[in-house]
Amino acid sequence: MAEQPEGRVLFGVLDETSATESRVALTPDIVTRLRKAGVSCLIESGAGEKAFYTDADYEAAGATIASAQQILQQAHAIGFVDRPSEQVIEQLKPGTWVIGMLGSFTDEAYISNLEAHGLTAVAIERLPRQLSAAQSMDEMTSQNSVMGYKAVLEAANAYGSFLPMMTTAAGTIRPAKMLILGAGIAGLQAIGTAKRLGAVVTAYDVRPASKEEVESLGAKFLDLGLDFSKGQGEGGYARALTPEEQAAQQAAVDEKATQFDIIITTAKVPGRKPPVLLTKQGVQGLHRGAVIVDCAASELGGNVEGSTPGTQITDGGVTVIGAPYLASEVSTTASNLLSRNVADILTHFIKDGQLSIDMTDEIDQAMVVAGAKE
Ligand code: NAD
């Protein structure tokens, strides 16, 4: 490996690709951008291949191709699409910075482990997204937007008819009726994509403010006849509903859902298990051939009762796709955006050519979850 110039921050990125992950946390255009900011980049050989970037592209941009071992030992900071595994943590030298989606809201033991290894940890999920200085660092927005777009394509592929109305010599086909549950970043992008494909779109969100946004995109807002406005809107995010409110919401969604051909769910509450919006009974009420794409599906469950990552077809002929990996399936653009977000977080922490923490800064205060005491 080539010698790195003295006094520059060394930023490393590992190959995180797997059967479900095609993204990379650094793209060649960002290597060039970082170089100008005093950062030299190390990237594991082959890390960008699934996002269609070759080692030669990275080298041409000024990065150094390295082995995982070299990066773990030499980088001052490492950026992740996801977060370092226990095995990677074991190999990192104390003082190394890790930047990623660390799961700090739900996994305290993991964060304690980073601290115990003497690492400095920057949790992207804690970005104060409302600050204008944080906009270009917002990976949740960039990746959820990609996910919302891809969710509609996924649903369209699994659906046995057209999305738009189509008049043919053999008759007129009615457009698909699509319901989007959760109208945040992903939901709004899904509405836009579904409208462009000609579906008739209805959307619902628990935040009262979302009605106007849904309607401004030309979709209909679904009125459940329930008012959850009390307590909503802190920082612009949804609050978790009480068990009674949740039950009322589920009953109303289950009933309304029967009218739709395609349902896309994107509802989350920051740092918590996603709420169940559609129960098993609701899924049973859908017609044969209906398609559900649950973007919130995870091992913890999703917005649809019983959905897990992967595709299931119910006895009633409803396709339920648990799809938490959709951003990865638009790998080039998702990586470009993510790489820009991670690079801007990194450079935020570089002051006078050095990585450092300033606990009087709102972003530092919110995001540094380990190593702040040094
Ligand atoms: P998210 O991914 O956490 O959740 C997705 C959507 O699910 C949200 O709109 C949420 O209200 C909705 N939801 C949660 N529980 C629900 C329930 N029980 N029923 C129905 N819907 C439910 O959120 P997000 O997409 O990242 O963004 C949510 C809000 O944050 C939006 O208002 C967005 O404009 C705002 N936001 C602000 C900034 C910023 O200030 N820069 C950046 C990003 C997002």
TrEMBL record:
<feature type="domain" description="Alanine dehydrogenase/pyridine nucleotide transhydrogenase N-terminal">
    <location>
        <begin position="12"/>
        <end position="147"/>
    </location>
</feature>
<dbReference type="Pfam" id="PF05222">
    <property type="entry name" value="AlaDh_PNT_N"/>
</dbReference>
<dbReference type="GO" id="GO:0050661">
    <property type="term" value="F:NADP binding"/>
</dbReference>
<feature type="domain" description="Alanine dehydrogenase/pyridine nucleotide transhydrogenase NAD(H)-binding">
    <location>
        <begin position="156"/>
        <end position="322"/>
    </location>
</feature>
<dbReference type="InterPro" id="IPR036291">
    <property type="entry name" value="NAD(P)-bd_dom_sf"/>
</dbReference>
<dbReference type="GO" id="GO:0005886">
    <property type="term" value="C:plasma membrane"/>
</dbReference>
<dbReference type="GO" id="GO:0006740">
    <property type="term" value="P:NADPH regeneration"/>
</dbReference>
<dbReference type="InterPro" id="IPR008143">
    <property type="entry name" value="Ala_DH/PNT_CS2"/>
</dbReference>
<keyword id="KW-0521">NADP</keyword>
<protein>
    <recommendedName>
        <fullName>proton-translocating NAD(P)(+) transhydrogenase</fullName>
        <ecNumber>7.1.1.1</ecNumber>
    </recommendedName>
</protein>
<dbReference type="InterPro" id="IPR007698">
    <property type="entry name" value="AlaDH/PNT_NAD(H)-bd"/>
</dbReference>
<dbReference type="GO" id="GO:0008750">
    <property type="term" value="F:proton-translocating NAD(P)+ transhydrogenase activity"/>
</dbReference>
<keyword id="KW-1278">Translocase</keyword>
<keyword id="KW-0520">NAD</keyword>
<dbReference type="InterPro" id="IPR007886">
    <property type="entry name" value="AlaDH/PNT_N"/>
</dbReference>
<comment type="function">
    <text>The transhydrogenation between NADH and NADP is coupled to respiration and ATP hydrolysis and functions as a proton pump across the membrane.</text>
</comment>
<dbReference type="Pfam" id="PF01262">
    <property type="entry name" value="AlaDh_PNT_C"/>
</dbReference>
<dbReference type="GO" id="GO:0016491">
    <property type="term" value="F:oxidoreductase activity"/>
</dbReference>
<keyword id="KW-0547">Nucleotide-binding</keyword>
<comment type="similarity">
    <text>Belongs to the AlaDH/PNT family.</text>
</comment>
